[in-house]
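Students often ask why we bother encoding 3D structure as a string. The short answer is that it lets us treat folding as translation between two languages. Here is a chain of 517 residues written in the first language.
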Amino acid sequence: MTTSALQKAGEFTVGNKTSTRKAIGLPDKGLRTKLSLSNKLPEEYDALVVPVFKGESGLELAATGLFDESVDTAIWELLAAVGATGKAEELTRVPAIEGMEADFVLAVGLGNPDALDEEKLRRAAGVAARSLKGVGTVATTLGSFGLGPAVEGFALGAYDYPGLRSKPSSSEPLGRAVFVDSRENAKKEMRRAKIIAGSVCVARDLVNAPSSHLYPATYASIIEELATEQGIAVEILDEKRLAKEGFGGILAVGMGSSRPPRLVRLTWEPKDCYHHVALVGKGITFDTGGISLKPPASMDNMISDMGGSAAVVATVLAAARLDLNIKVTATIPLAENMPGGNSYRPGDVITHYGGTTSEILNTDAEGRLVLADAMARACEDEPDYLIDTATLTGAQLVALGERTSGVMGNGPLRDQIAAAGVAMGENAWAMPLPEEIAEAVKSPVADIRNVTGNRNGGMLAAACYLRHFVTEGIEWAHVDIAGPAYNTSSAYGYTPKRATGVPVRTFIEVLSEIEHM
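And here it is in the second language, the structure alphabet:
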């Protein structure tokens, strides 16, 4: 598919509908490394990746179980000779030992063996994978300390988004990673890890796609293509349906753009499932701030303002691929926030889906407006749980930094999500909804207003606003991922620069926990 074709609005099919138009697909994909499982070394491989520890007496090499003891000893001696210590995420590359088919050995430090956990293994695997770009095939025994985390870390670390260059990038990805593991349940662990990592990479691909290619109409079609492949039901509301059904928040935000908004609904519903989780994700495909225009510096990063929607899409896809016995619905509002002639203005009052009115004080606080409509619609399905996520506030970064999501809500679900985030290496922290901030969200001319006029507690104010759209009796949590969804610094661990895929793994973990409740 050509770039020029992607740039023409409305020239694509959606799902399996009969049409002469071409399907979209993602502009490019970042996970190009093949991952496989074997109970022995492949016949041909370029490198062997082995774990080492920082023991009390110095460097410790975990026995590979692949060679004679003399070969393992020779590897250890060579690593020790060049100063390897085994500290966490340390990489040491040495030539292969005689009798091995590889060109070199890469030792990956796991630190103190008594302190090793899944996240440390995940990060070490990611660091190793990032260092192996351009290598054809590697074999590794990292999975012997946790196959799932090792595969996730390796896959996520190997992720490399090539972009839309006219010529191929000179940086080739790692070609293939073979995990050597002969345990009986290894295939099951491998499959789950590949699905989880692949889902994160889908979210990364969506966020990394430029807004010239990913805007409401094309994004809705891409979502439908991805969902239809997994047997997930899809409904798309265009601007006419949105107007007819009263989605005033989505329409207000999207009316300043020449690319009209959409609302996408996804449903994964196995037979005889007991629990129902509703997901909502903010899908602002580009955010200029509208009339309340943002400063131009770093505005290009606003292609990431649909990170919440990408995470929700990827989570529903994962639920289907993992065949989770739980009903999952997703309500995904898509809009561009642009300062056009039809833009909404500070001082406007809009009516949301369901009838709640909002006074607009700042058009750059648009995310909560589209989420409000989507949450009100999601609550009509009477789910047991409602989880929304968004790159919502700069206040999240001020409060918690670039790598920790803020989680707010009205029940135990808040703490469950925060705990899952920490366990999965997607740090999250439970935050309160103070009474005085909830009071400040009230408006003198409407039911509520979209900002309080006070910088303090901005993340909490946004959550207090959203709480107005949660039906009583539904357990709800809001996850602000403004910083964690998009890494503007250097790559670290298994996290690349740009899109991170947070909080997909957290959400998959929470769905899995609810499935067994």
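Translate back mentally: Confidence is low (pLDDT under 50) at residues 1-22. Keep this in mind for the problem set.
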